[in-house]
Automatic annotation (TrEMBL):
This is Uncharacterized protein. Keywords: Membrane, Transmembrane, Transmembrane helix. It comes from the Bacteria. It comes from Gottfriedia solisilvae. The chain crosses the membrane at residues 15-36, 42-62, 74-92.
Length: 95
């Protein structure tokens, strides 16, 4: 039985790179957005919505090589953008 392969969608290296990317994205862009006058919550919302969708798309498409077609990659990016935006809105503004 090879059931554990279906659970792991991407490797540990990809997960590590993803979390490093999100941390760096937050450390770089949150202060920049706050400097231009955004509130802390709105800066977190924008940074994490974009960062999560860009990071996951990059990991899945380029590092893991799951999609070979540009149309699939764009569909993945925009669906992740919608999902991450809704999720980040719920986490940041409804807490």
């Amino acid at each position: 039985m090879d059931t554990t392969k279906k659970i792991h969608f991407f490797s540990y290296k990809s997960a590590f790179l993803f979390f490093i990317f999100i941390l760096a994205f937050n450390l770089i862009f949150n202060p920049v957005f706050q400097l231009i006058g955004m509130t802390k919550e709105f800066a977190l919302f924008i940074t994490n919505s974009l960062g999560l969708s860009i990071g996951l798309t990059t990991i899945i498409v380029f590092i893991e090589g799951k999609f070979k077609n540009k149309k699939q990659s764009f569909t993945l990016f925009f669906s992740l953008l919608v999902f991450c935006t809704i999720t980040c809105y719920i986490v940041v503004f409804n807490s």
